[in-house]
Amino acid sequence: MEGNGEEAANGRPLRIAVGKGRLLSRTLETFRRAGVDLPDPDGRRLVLGSTPGDVELLLLKDDDVPTYVAHGGADLGVVGSDRVAESGERVFTPVDLPFGECRVALIGRAGEPFRPNGHPVTVGTKYRRLARRFFDGRRIAHEVVPLAGSVELAAALKLTDVVVDLIETGGTIAANGLAEIETILPSRAVLIAGRSALSARRAEIAALVERVALVAEVRC
User: What is the pTM of this model?
Assistant: First the structure.
């Protein structure tokens, strides 16, 4: 269920959901430069309060950030645009941030051309929605094999024909005898906002979004 404006009117802090992964340090830096005084994570607390307490940072798994924002658990969020696309959640993206550049790609074994021969292609991935959309769009029969981690290994060990995964530099796939076949979706860190939050806390969110946008523009 989505949050409502009553809780916002009761004066709770503005809640910002962020992933605990690779984007966290740059996210903290961005908000601090935008004037939000946040402490460093201590590895235990999942909620970090700002000084003077007008903002709360929720430390989540990356995949959960769009869900929290879309359903009112958080007002804003910072996450990779790949996670937003994979989630299918309806959120607004007011600011593209100048970090976290990578891409979701189709990856196969190096030296083996990707030539679907009519048999379903087995695809190892945690990006099930994006993988299905990619193969459906090309009318290629496929079977998605859900994986949560070490996705590249599935192709390297021939558990699957190919994998769909996130590439930052390409070093990991090259080290495992793999190669990128095609980019499916470019990705970068984005600031996202929920519909209910924009309705209930429009002025408050607009002010913070403006400050974050200025920081992002300076860093570009």
Answer: 0.89
